[in-house]
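Predict the 3D structure for this chain.
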Amino acid sequence: MERILVGIDERCAHWEALAHGCSLARRIRARLYVLFVNGTRAGASGGAVRQRLELLVGAAKAEGVPVEYFIAEGGYEDAVVSFVNTHGITLLIHEAAPVDHAATGHAVSALQALRHRISCRVEIVNPKRA
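Done. Predicted structure below.
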């Protein structure tokens, strides 16, 4: 059975990746894991991003998507790598950064570093333009 992971960073929520992960999990009958990474502030709640995420996860469960929700603290990349290795993830769905030439280079290098540390496939979702 396919095991899909969507990582949500509190600083940059990936709503398109989550929507795609839910849709794909429903279509291919895969298990979806949602990992909320709560930065480096121990005990911080993540505020509005976490509340919206919990509502979306609840809605996905109500629609019959087999989804499990986890919370991690620390750096996004380290949390994702650890989760992939621990839970036998076969597909990571990652949302590309919005088109901002100053941040694009950093986002691409961070994604490449992440891809070299995990053994699963990576699917990149491009966000819709406003």
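Strands lie at 3-9, 31-37, 67-72, 91-95, 121-125.
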